[in-house]
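Hi R.,

Here's the chain you asked about this morning:
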Amino acid sequence: MRFPLSQPSLGEKESENVRDAMASGWISGTGPYVSAFERSLEQRTGRTSATAVSSGTTALEIVLSALGIGAGDEVVVPALTFAAPAAAVLTVGATPVLCDITPGNWTIDPDAARALLTTRTRAVIAVDLMGHPCEYERLSELEVPIIEDAAQAHGARTRKGPTGSFGIASVFSFHVNKAITSGEGGAVLTDDPELADRVRLLTHHGMNPSRRYHHSMAGRNGRMTNLSAAVGAAQAERWDELVAGRSEVARLYRARLAGHGFSPRPAEPWASPSCWLHCVTSAERDAAVERARRSGVDARAVWPALSDLPLYRRYAPRPCVHASEVSRTAMWLPTWAHMPPEDVADVAESLL
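And the predicted structure, written out as tokens:
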């Protein structure tokens, strides 16, 4: 493809950090760059504890386990999202309950979520979909623990604070297509000290930090390596630059595509969304994707609604009509920080 869907913005600082980690011989988990990356995430979100882990999916699995969620429990999950939240719920032995989205911002609908609550509901995973924050004030009224999945929303905000700061815990992903990357990686953030301790124990094999090889719970190796964190720590120093770079690409796309039948994803006045991958909707989405791909542009249809997939369909107690509609009409366009304006113009032209 001439234009990939995304690519990382890596500079000399990332290379310098990796060389330093390699020279020290400390390339696995728990190294100094891991700690530095965790501190930067705490400062960015205002959270009191951040634990860097191997992926955003691992972060979801660990926080669910740390909350004691398992067999017999239910967790409400939006029907429009990458599959990781629902898969994480199944991985810990619980049952995902798929919920429709609100058409005004494409995030989980608080009213629809309320209608799905039962005596077995233990949490709601609220996904800040494609950079748009969820309605956390309304979700808090559900009176069940909220887990914020901010994997796609680095740098977004509401009037109440930045993404990553909401709910009993929040998670980030630092996959290579995210605005801030460590190649692969994730993090769990919380202000609850007891929950933070359980998260760290689960991440580090359940091993007592003061008594090596004494295990107080059945944990796993969910750690981020020092090499990955070396990249992540450098990226965190460039957070504002990288987030702003993608926002500028989104602005250029909006200008280029105005009046051509492509609508940008909706946003609420109370939110300041960030750009993960620029997303547009079109009644002729599939034809536009095909035209772009013939021109060497890695444009992609968004995920199918989970409620429309055979694997997950049985977990949707009610129709998820808005999720299905967005999944049929929305598409992503190549997006990365500092994408040249002429590349944006070529991608936009390929759709027409």
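The radius of gyration is 20 Å.

Let me know if you need anything else.
M.
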